[in-house]
Structure formats: structure tokens, C-alpha cells
Fold each of these.
Amino acid sequence: MDADLLAEITAGVEKSLKPYREGFAKHEFLPERGMDREEIIELMQNFKEMEAAKWKEGFVSGAVYHGNEDHIDFMNQVYAINSQSNPLHPEIWPSTTKFEAEIVSMTANMLSADQTDDEIVGVVSSGGTESILLAMKTYRDWARETKGIQQPEIIAPTTAHAAFSKAGDYFGIKINRIPVGEDFRADVEKTRQAINENTIALVGSAPPFPHGIVDPIEELSELARENDLGFHTDGCLGGFILPWAEKLGYDIPPFDFRLPGVTSISVDTHKYGYAAKGTSVILYRGAELRHFQYFSVADWPGGFYVSPTFAGSRPGALIAVAWAAMVSMGEAGYLKSAKRILDTTDWLKEEIKNFPDLQLIGDPPFMVTIRSETLNIYQIMEYMTERNWGLSGLHLPPSVHLCVTQRHTQDGVKERFVTELKEAIAYVKEHPGASEGMGPIYGMASAIETRGMVTAVFNWFMDLLYSV
Ligand SMILES: *Cc1c(COP(=O)(O)O)cnc(C)c1O
């Protein structure tokens, strides 16, 4: 890729990510005197109005999973009541402890904890990534303690979330990524061949983020059990919707604690659990495993210190919000919401099958993943981006997906998507040289010789976010 093209892309990114550089006051230093509260509220209301339309009107993939006005108002009310609470001080806020324990219990039972004789335990974390990091650290410490493994390895499909690689990076665990099969599901045979004496755990996703197709968790978890390994189901995305899809009669492969080999599950309250952003649940089979997650120190001058997750102080208010989301939705609420989302997905898939230029990847229950054998899918995506859509761009193979949420079940949204997709196809056919947006970056990222350059682009991107 040439420097001009890179400059063009970076200029476009900068413009879209820093729209308030003009026309708004900058705060590089603390203001000498505090700003008026009304002024702050007005500023934020302004930002909110400019930013809400995109997700509210269902233009984006995933991101906001519920988003109805009355639901948000209720969450905000719950947050306000609990804003001072911190579960680091359970003696001051025992209500937060109650909420957290009940979130864990309700989530575990939603994932069939009541159908096994083993005790299923867990904690509330700050999000899917933290749940995954915690589980990987737990397996590392478990394997070191019980098996003496000093150079731990985890085997995960290529499609398992980036957070597994992050865990490997942070905790000195080798993550052995196994290519998925032609059906985009984890390859059980290749996983079996990859097991060695340093393997501590296997991973599967229900479903993985890229294509939304549930891995063969039953086979993978049995493989783990035969080899006395941990098995983690990443249910971050699907954990709060697949159980309801199953109840609604969808063919959902088993992934939860009904499978005896599954020893941990991550599941995000802040996705299809419809809580505010900042909570997830990590569940374990057996209290012993959870003990490897805990941290405690007895000889610190600050006194006895115990902490279940990476954070010290934690936002008790977000735990209260997650609890309130769950008990206010109830089974009936989750079922109703799941039905709308799954119906919308089914409708979209049927419509997209009518476009000979597009191919669906698999048949995931709440996602449409699209590629094209005849057109450049990134040009299609770019056209949609210009029409205000925020689809997720994927690569290996080049494709895009729409993760369907309650926002897309509103009147007219799915029809608008299909209409504009049709226009995008027509446009790209007429203008085969149209802009690819992020396409070249994806292309570059797949080529080994340009990987250093990609890291440079990523670093530039993150530095940009931190510039005022
Ligand atoms: C979202 C997601 C994660 C990570 O969750 P965060 O809350 O973004 O940290 C992990 N796995 C899957 C499958 C996900 O969709």
C-alpha cells in the first residue's frame, strides 16, 4: 500500500474520531474555577443528541443490545441510587454483595447449573475481556499448583476472541490458535493433535464474535475431560440469548454446564443481558477452581486484603444495574426479546439469499455474516458506512456482519438495511474502483511482510484517541 493511500485513510479516520476539535472548548488543564453544573449537563446533552441517533435508530452492529428509552431510564435510576457503593467494602454495602451473589446464581442456573450435581460458582467482572483474562489466569495457576506445569499452553480456535491472546500476552501463556474448519467451527481433530504435556485448557465459543456460529463444544469439552484439562466456553456474546433461542425451538448445540467437561463459562450481562456497560459473569465448575482466581495478602501494612478480580475498588452501582436488568426482564422478558431478535435475523437471512452477489456464512441464530464471490465486500461496507451504517468488518475471509439487537427489531430498520444493501451492490457493480475504506488495512494485516506496518497504524490510532 502506498503512502498516499495511507495518508488518505488516516486523515479520514482522524476527522471522524475527533469531530469536536472545532467549536468546543478544550480542557488540557483543570479549569481554574469549576464549570457550572448546568453548563456541563448542557454540553453532554448536546453530545448525546449528536451521537445517539446512530445506535438508537439501529444503524450499528451489536454495541447497544437493548436501548429502549424506558429501559435506559430505569437503569439510570438504579445507578443513581447505588452510585457510592463499592463491593471492596462488603460491611458498608451488603446489598451489593447480595446483588452480586444473585447475579452469579441466576446466570449459572440460566446456563443449566441446576442440572448438574457439581456446584457452579462465579464472580461479576467488568466485562467479557476481564472474565476471559480471569479464567485464563485461573487455569494457569490451577495447572501450576496441581500439575506443576510451568510453561502453560491454551488451545483455542482462530475465531476465539482476541481477549484470549491478550490473556496469553499478560500472563505468559502460549495461545495455540487452531484454524477453524470449512464450516467456520473449531476443528476437533486438529485440537486433539495439538494437545501436549503443557496444555492446561481448551477453548470454544458459543458463539465466536466473527461469524456467530457455535463451536462443537460437546466434542471439545469431552476432549478436555478425557485429558484432564480445563475447558472454557466463551459465552460472552451468546450466553444471554442462546438459552432462550433453545427454548424457542432453535437448534442450538449444547454449550453450557449440562456438558460435564465444561469447567468455566464467560457470559456478558452487558450484551444480551441488557445491563449497562461494565459487567460480565465468569462461572466455574467447583469452588476449588474459583479459589485460583482470588487474590489475598495477609502481611501488607494496609491490613488483610482480599480481592476476587483484577480491580480493587469496583463499581457497585453497575452490579446493582445488572441485577436490576436481570430481575426486571425475567425469563418472560428475555424470551420475548430473543424472539424478536431471532425473527428479525431469520427475515434478514431470507432477504439476503435473494442477492446472487452475496453469500451468507453459515446459519448463525442472531447474526448475518456476508461475503461476496463477485464483488469487493469492503466496497459494499464502505457504501453502507456512507449511509450511516456501522457494520463490523471482518477478514480471513473478507466479510462483514450485522449482530442483530433489539435496535434492529424496530419498525422499518431491517427493510432499510436490505434496501440500502441492494443500492450498495448496484453502486459497487457500476463503480468497481470505489473506495474500500478499511479494506486495504485488512488486506495488509493478513500479509506477514506488512505486519510491522499494521502495528504502527494501530499505535497511531490509539495515540490519536488519547490526543485532546
Ligand atoms: C464481546 C465479546 C468478548 C469480550 O467482551 P468485552 O465485554 O468486549 O470485553 C469476548 N468474547 C466474545 C465472543 C464477544 O462477543
Amino acid sequence: MIDLYSDTKSRPTEAMRKAIAGAVVGDEQQNEDPTVAKLLERVVALLGKEAAVFLPSGTMANEIAVLLHCRPGDEVIAHRDAHVFNFEGGAVAALAGAMIRPLDGAAGMFEVESLAAAIRPRARLTPKSRLVSIEQTTNLGGGAVWPLARIEAVAGLAREHGLAAHLDGARLMNAVVATGVSAARHAALFDTVFLDFTKGLGAPFGAVLAGSADLIAEAWEWKQRLGGSMRQAGMMAGGCLHALDHHVERLADDHANARLLAELVGEAATLSVGRVETNMVYVNVEATGLSAAEFNRRLIERGVRACVIGPARLRMVTYLDIGADEVRRAARITNDVASGR
Ligand SMILES: *Cc1c(COP(=O)(O)O)cnc(C)c1O
């Protein structure tokens, strides 16, 4: 099966498995795990933040960020398609008691003007606008990259109005590799930022949330409350360190493979392919007369899997386990299904 469902499908390489198995470990909850400490040092330096905390997942990182910034009744402003609204089990409401103010905009990004219009003037009647969160790259937005100038404007406006800013950096390193804008340059604009190691970076577990020393001290309280404190987590952090050493620059290969996939699939007259900026290809299958679900069923029968995103949209994602050969084979099969072959 050529699984293009998501970059979460990557499996640890042999070398990564060795790094995991050989990691020096201690009790993470007591700050005694040297490999976790090393990872946090690396991420703090990479992001230019004061402190960081190791977490089992990006979802926990996003939710702890919301918990740090918001009190019950406060409002979180993010794109309508944001992971934090759509794929975290309603935790913004369930855990933080916060409200959601979804903004529209192309490719998972909103305009600065939309943010300006959404920030509420302080009044007794209204919820408090409290946090702005953006994704870099945008997930449901097709792996699109926020231009630095637009992030600066969004973060600047948030600051001007006394709002906190959070960067969902599940795929931040994809943006860094695609644009050359450093992770620290991004992170400087935000109060909190997280990196996920289980997406393009190809580790089986782990995320790091970074921010000021005060915020991260408080994040530790939430990590404990949520059951996110761990023991010999150096075995997890060892995979993440290996990913930082070996899997960052190669994200450029994933991006090249995604462009190749888009080019080949785009040759079918009935498939319309979205703009590829990083490792995601969005394919609209409407003109084939098949629903996205039926199209995907036919793909799966032939050994290719995509992710159904809407009634007529499929997402295909490239990652560590998907090389140019897999891309060519997947494209041929996709074009065959599109033309009823
Ligand atoms: C995957 C993802 C998350 C959540 O990360 P997990 O490690 O899967 O919990 C958050 N935000 C975005 C944009 C993601 O793609």
C-alpha cells in the first residue's frame, strides 16, 4: 500500500529505532531524563525561546497553550479549518472553557483585516478576545505557508490589542525548509510555539512546546494535570533528536515529491490539483463524476490510499517513506481511476 493519507503514517527508520533503543534515560517527571533535557536544549536554541516542555503529542501542546492563555469564557481566534478547532475533540471548550471565533480565508490563512474585525472592543457584554492561533504550515489549507510579512502583521495586531499569540508549528520545519525563514524568526512573533516530531520529521512520538520560563513552568502544571508527565521519556526524545539531526533538510525531498505528484496527477483532464507549497497535494475529483470517498475506495483497491477531505476533495501527503518511485506509481493509479481504466 502506498499510503498518502498523511505524513503521520511515517515509520521510524532503522537508525531512528537504534537512537530510541540506545537513549540514556531517567525520570522525565522529575527532570532527570538527560535525553529529554538535550532535546529541550536543542529546541530552545532552534526557536530562540527561554524554555520548553516535552509532551506526548501536538494536540496536548495546542491545548496546554490554550489553557495557559485563556480563562473560561475567553475567545480563541483562529482559522475555521484550524486543527485546534476541528480535530482536538472540542478540548478548547471542554478543558479551557474557551469560546471559538473562527475566521475564513483561502488556504487556511486569514487576512489581517479579518482579525482586526474579529477582535472585540472590551465591553461587559462580550467575551474577551484573548488568543490568536495560526498554523504554519496550514493543514487543511493544503500545506500552505503563511508569508512572514502577514504573520508579522497578525502577531503585531494581536500584541497591540493585548492578545496572546500561539503558533501551531506541527509542520513548522516544512515551512522553514520551503522558505528559508528560520524557526526562530517565526517563534519570536509568538508567546508560545510547538513543534511536532511525528509529522514530516518522522518520529513515532513527541512534541515540544516552547515559550517564556514563566509560561513553561505553568505548562508543567497542566502537563501533570492532563497526565502528560512521563518516566523514561528519553526513549521518545531520542527519536526526536535523531529527527532534528537527520530529517529536517530532507523535507525538501518531500516537497519535490509532492510537486512531482501534483504535476503527474494534473495530467488527467478530470482532476484538478491545488497549489503545492510543501508536502501536501489536494486533488478535486468532481469532474470524474465520482465522490471523493468512492474515488479513494477505488484507489485503495489498487494499493494507494489518500485522505478524503470533502465530498469531492482528496489529500495526498508525501513523507519519509514515500520516494519518487512510489509517487510515480501512485500518480499512474490515480490517473487510471480518474479515467475509469
Ligand atoms: C497533527 C497536527 C496537530 C496535532 O498533533 P498530534 O501530534 O497529532 O497530536 C496539531 N496541529 C496541526 C496543524 C496538525 O497537523
